[in-house]
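User: Hey, quick favor. My workstation is busy. Could you predict this chain's structure for me?
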Amino acid sequence: MTLDRPRTALVTGSAGFVGQHLIRHLLDLGYSVHGTVRPGDAAPGGLSREERARIAVHSADLADRPALERALDEAQPTHVFHLAGQPFVPDSVRDPESTFRTNVLGTLALYEAIRQACRELPRVVVAGSAEIYGLVRSADLPLTERSVFNPANPYAASKVAQYYVGLQAWNLWKLPVLYAVAFNHIGPGQSDRFVVSSFARQLVEMQLGRREPVLEVGNLEARRDFTDVRDVVRAYALLAERGEPGEAYNVCSGQARSIAEVERLLEATVEISPERRTDPLRMRPSDLPELRGDHGKLKAVTGWVPEIPLEDSLRAIVAGWRDALTPAPIAAREASKS
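Assistant: No problem, here it is.
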């Protein structure tokens, strides 16, 4: 794709886990970057002072279309990366209506705002989820973009609907929407509501003497396809440049690792062997035995392959929690305020 104007990105949900990594990567690629945050939320974290100075931050909720239009009107993006949404499966079970309102109607509001505010339609990459494939048989693995959708929870169902909203935006309005079907992604800065980050935080707290050596776990037998978030955002940027509108692309490693294996690797990283205790609150009512994808379509179109080994990802996550949980020296804290 060749553009006759400088590349400018607008990243929705820029204050989230993926947002900080995507912003850093886009800046490295030479984009001008705008990000949206919900009213009252902090600006994107995890960035250096110099990186923060290079981005424009807009307060705009997906439920507030006029605010979205103002942000888009100012940015006039060549590319939109839609990361904002309700990402937690347990929350979707407790409140499916809110999940659908955010993930489906919020996405539709973004598309309408783009059509109203942008003088030239930008390419839009939507961060989807492999949860759309749902309950699958081992014989159906690895999952491809031709696999049947079989959502097993309200979050997954909302992401299926989000996919079809984007497809209609392309078919009806020629808004060039691409759907990135992201499998499990991990990395520094992820919320401890997700399993790998939760284990890492607990283990670092044990290492620092703040927690008894008892690890709270859920289903350790589940197998997931993990990709480092830094590889994931690289895929998003490549799709924005080279992907075909109206198409979905799996973003995954192509390998499934059990949660138990990941937990053992984390133990080895921090050199702690705790007792394990099953927490019923960490067990999903419809947990999937295995998710494993095929990224052949993405590779064929963009040349992307995952580059960061799982072990390196886990070390980075542990280091991130160690930094977050270890008080900074007074001089460093004062310098960060200036």
